[in-house]
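I am still getting used to backbone structure tokens and would like to learn alongside you. To get us started, please write out a protein record for me. Start from the sequence, derive the backbone structure tokens from it, and show both lines together. Once you have written the record down, we can walk along the chain together:
***
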Amino acid sequence: MIMDFVRSFQTLDEKTIMPWLRDVRMKAHAPSSGYRVGAILIVKTSSGFLGFAGVNVESVEHRLSVHGEEGALSALITTLGPDVAIESAWVIGGVDDHGPESDIVAHCCGNCRQQLAGVARALDIRVHNCALSGRVVDTALNDLLPDSFSFDNFNAESSALRARAIATITPDQDMAALARRAVRNDLHEIPALRVWAADLKSLNYASHTSQTVILELDNGAYVAGVKVENAVFTGLSAMQAALSIAHLSQKSGWSVNEVFVFSERGGDAGPLRDDEIMPLSLSALQILSEFSKSSIIPVTHLSANGDGMTMTLADWGHEAPRMHHETRRIRNGLLLSAA
């Protein structure tokens, strides 16, 4: 069963959003805290609205956890790319033991306020923080986060890219095609995965490096996620994005069978060479290990020349501390000592 992580609306109000928001929250993965969060980010289209949903995904290494608002941001950027801006946000959260009549409002944490500021069309967009009872506190983002720091303040290039995103009006979308940009249920061989990944774009105004992760799950689904940066360098890895989308879109009980990684680089460092890869970080491998079938699942990095490097999750973990370079070169399926 796939749960909607994106929906279209002609009109937008509490009656439209709240039932979906409550359903979304129940997909959260919160074994440590028991505090489930659901979030929906709203994008205006040519003739209506799109809503992108996300949930919190807790990691045993708490800093690697994905917040509900970040989960929605993952779905948004993976499907629409970086040239997008949100009109509003809806967030609901609470501990189940509080009961459905709890009036305790789930206010966005400081980190998520920063994340929202990074993709807001204007700093006074409305953030609707909700209690389990349905009580809603409606606040302007710039009241929640005054004097925010975003890519508008970063440098001239990133400010121009941000301005382009704000000016973009998202065209109306075919919903099945839009969802398929992040989740697919038909078998994909590597050539098809390459085509899929090439169509996805990271939000990478700071580093100019892009990474896409595609997870093959044991239920037969494939789930993609892209890197999502922000100006204060508390963004999301492609692995975090893919795992958060998987938690919302899939019926519980899944695990990761295999992983495929695609990377690109721009900026002053120049593009990757045809035989170069950007290996997953140790933190990405850590959170992957929490949702994998075993430590020996294959993880494949694919280079532009058609070559690939496959090692087990455990072997990439052993190799990661020795990777002092951002990139590595591969040849005939072998990892060379340095880029």
In short: The mean pLDDT is 93.
